[in-house]
Design a protein that fits this description.
Oligomer: single chain
Low-confidence stretches: 127-132
Strand order of the largest sheet: 2-3-4-1-5-8-7-6
Distance between the termini: 25 Å
Largest sheet: 8 strands, mixed
Number of strands: 8
Order of helices and strands: EHEEEEHEEE
Helix content: 10-25%
Radius of gyration: 15 Å
Number of helices: 2
Length: 132
């Protein structure tokens, strides 16, 4: 169900030090680092993200939470986006490939009723991404 999620950190340097240490003990490490956001996990797959609450488009102490749900295929990602928009949700990013995450990352992002960034993501093969 949950693919990955992220929290925002008010003390960016201290949070990096904390999560590097405590997640390292559990066998997890930095898998991606964008400077203002770091993804932790294993085997090249970040599952838990921390972000600098003072950076980016939605900076501030009440920056939204990010949660991504696993989708079975690209068509399901598109259906998720369509259903959310039909209910009046703000579309943050329409369904598309996100090669900056990995070559087969297909996701869509919407804002839920409380302002959180909610995503559906499919990590499949190119042939599985054919959307009518």
């Amino acid at each position: 169900m949950i693919d990955h999620f992220g929290i925002n950190c008010s003390d960016w340097a201290k949070s990096q030090q904390f999560y590097d240490a405590v997640l390292g003990v559990l066998g997890f490490s930095r898998q991606m680092d964008f400077g203002i956001a770091i993804g932790y996990g294993s085997n090249g797959r970040p599952e838990f993200w921390i972000a600098d609450a003072s950076a980016g488009e939605a900076s501030g102490p009440n920056r939204e939470v990010h949660i991504a749900f696993h989708a079975a295929d690209a068509a399901t990602v598109t259906a998720f986006h369509d259903a959310a928009v039909a209910l009046g949700a703000e579309s943050l990013h329409a369904p598309r490939l996100w090669p900056e995450y990995h070559p087969e990352y297909f996701g869509a992002f919407v804002r839920d009723p409380d302002g959180n960034n909610v995503e559906a993501v499919f990590h499949g093969s190119a042939s599985d991404r054919q959307v009518g």
